Amino acid sequence: MTAGGFRPKPIFEIARRVLMRNSKFFSSACLASLIGLGFLAISFSIQADDFTEGDLKRWNQEFMSVVEKGSKLFHSAELGTNKVSCDQCHPNAANTHPETYPKFQQQLGRVITLSEMINWCIQNPLEGEPLPLDGAKMTALLSYITWERRGVPLAPGKH
Amino acid sequence: MSMNRRAFLKTTGAGLMAAAFPLSLVKLAFGGEGSIPDFTFGYISDAHIQQIKGTRFVRNWDMGLIRAVREANLLTPRPDFFMFGGDLAQLGKKEELDHGLEIMSNLRGKVRYVMGEHDYYLDLGKYWQEKLGPSYYSFDHKGVHFVVLNSILTYDKWTYETWPSPMDRMLAMARLDNPKGSPFMVGEEQIGWLKKDLAKINGNTPVVVFSHSPIQKIFKPWNFWTQDAEKVQALLKPFEKATVIYGHVHQIQYNQIGNITFQAVMATAWPWPYPETYSQLTNALPKITVPMNRADPFFERDATGWQFVDMKSGNTAMDYQLPDNQNRTVMFDAATGKPKDVKYQDDSRRIPPQTHF
Question: Is the pTM above the cut of 0.80?
Fold first, then answer.
């Protein structure tokens, strides 16, 4: 969807104004047709499900660059305040069990996600401040931890 | 206070009582046979004392070593001596070694030290050796020949020509999962020394080797590995009873290769996962090892510990002291010629926390 000439801003700006002025149903219809027109204007050949080997490669590179950022964080002292890093206890992110989350974390008495457990580790052994759950650092850590566990079947709830 | 803690103190109490009896009774209680008397020694390892800044050190790791020393001081009868199995420091700094040695100075009894890679790769063992002496040596005690090896050396090129600064080198070796790491080795100089040292020893004499890394090949990516392990094993082959006790792995491991019994010790600092938990690579964890329990991160001393060792007729019985867990004993079984866990060895006796994934 990055073919040259695509200018999403004006289209969405028009759509937003239409939305503000008209009924919900009408505006949705307008928005859909405007977006459709927009795409039509860009190119006649690209379909929504059309992507190339080049796209796949690029998307994978984007993901792996975030994995790399996660790996750097995981092996750095910057998440906590006492210079302890995640990899000191979890070489190659082993013993983090991302495939088992969400699960009943018996020590907390409730079902939690891996992100919450990451923050627990940052707050306790690393004596740091928890990360925003939707921030880039948390996404990077999740990407690295999950990548190191690739291929292992999902086992939510497993202890 | 938990059941297990009480059980430990109870055992210590029994020891106190035994000490009050005449010497011959104590000897009977230890079950000695033959010409080699039984005795005990203590083993503490992998404290990883880590400086934050100035006089601030990571509390968690400090507490592990402090606790081990306090508990070891309660042992009665007193062990003949103590060993420290390496990695007293996290980044080889003087401050870390000094702080660690200060905590260790509270331990009552003679202590000998093994060099770990975290003690070595900042200044190549200079300060450690200033404080503690040579990094490889041997001694004899009650009919057993003990050897301490410095098994954490590596290729000269990696050590001397790869890193812009000593701290870069230290940090590179301190990272267990570093793809730019380098395999541990004993090296030709020390193997030559060991050959000469062992040449003087009768084949009936039990030999016990202390090293930081396993003198066997388990998992290279985390250096649960010694590159020239076979050369050391070959030198131990002529002896009827040989044992290697090693640190580094922060977990219970044991194995038997020919005449050589291998036993790993726990860390006081933190546990490490078993290699099988890294799903991308294969490993060679000894099949006979019954693993320690999976660590509960919410109890910071879980899956850490220290040990005392009964030398029984030249073989080892390793008693793992595991805070808030059932203590474990792994002892040489003359019937099978292998070490075994006295409680959990049989498959039917295993418990769910011993499953790692």
Answer: yes
